[in-house]
Amino acid sequence: xxxxxxxxxxxxxxxxxxxxxxxxxxxxxxxxxxxxxxxxxxxxxxxxxxxxxxxxxxxxxxxxxxxxxxxxxxxxxxxxxxxxxxxxxxxxxxxxxxxxxxxxxxxxxxxxxxxxxxxxxxxxxxxxxxxxxxxxxxxxxxxxxxxxxxxxxxxxxxxxxxxxxxxxxxxxxxxxxxxxxxxxxxxxxxxxxxxxxxxxxxxxxxxxxxxxxxxxxxxxxxxxxxxxxxxxxxxxxxxxxxxxxxxxxxxxxxxxxxxxxxxxxxxxxxxxxxxxxxxxxxxxxxxxxxxxxxxxxxxxxxxxxxxxxxxxxxxxxxxxxxxxxxxxxxxxxxxxxxxxxxxxxxxxxxxxxxxxxxxxxxxxxxxxxxxxxxxxxxxxxxxxxxxxxxxxxxxxxxxxxxxxxxxxxxxxxxxxxxxxxxxxx
Length: 425
Fold this sequence. Notes:
It is built from 14 helices and 21 strands. It is α/β, with parallel strands linked by helices. It holds the Pfam family LysM.
């Protein structure tokens, strides 16, 4: 695998000749609609080379043992890491390892079934890269009765046929927004809480789901212990079915904070089968322009999280989108990563890259209005997969798979082994 960052004067014809990869392949893997490119765009170029693994030196490690574990020659390991000394390995040092052993992860893709017929082709195309499919279709009433908002039947059946485990995703969603009041009322009342557990469990059985994905946001901090009780009761009711819980990202525990206060990472990590930490929206709509997922912040979140949640249960989020800010008032528009990339081309502007955040961005103008766009590309997504490998995490979630990001799926197919369920009930 190569990543070619386009320079001024580059052409797809020259890039194709350089790597001996056809122009149609480059177009397809990178979602390009024509041979037009701009400086700064990063192109994924496939090769037959060994996949790259990413490892942190641990106490007691030796060069020979590391090479043996990854099934490569020690000399090849040294060639790939010219800065290391074989007899003076530094604990915590990060190294790159070309290996026949691909990184193995479990992935979870969110899908919002506004139109099943339009989403089914995407689902079939991406099925080999998805372990769990969280179907975003459910909310609940003031008395805790779960109900369906979007028709999910066809998606559930097709996901199981394609070898994915469908999870019923439920949110505290009301009037097109997350509702702290809704979840607060239900959690503080033991009867309503029991209603929610029982109605979710019944729907899982009726609809043929393999488990549940929880996305309760802005839970009132005083309901922190009630949230834990709810999760414990739900897991008990689900039995062997999967309980996956999504939590806002944080680097410290602030129990009174209205966004992160209700998430008791340690308790949730003990109860749930999978915990998805939402390492997204560092730059958020209507806020100041910032990267959606700067790598320095994501790593800080991971380092904090693994102190409380077993890494083998932990998934980080990879955003399939970026944001376009109008600078005069910070009005924000979400764009898929592919749309953001191709908008730079259509506006004929160069793409910049923030090395510290490991995120691309660019500016453009509509008349007198200046805009700035932060988004994701192959470079930024590779950095996320590196963290998964470095810290031996369970894997990643994708919000959401209806948003185009072909570079991500190309990288997965060439460099990562995605676990698929052995059995679908």
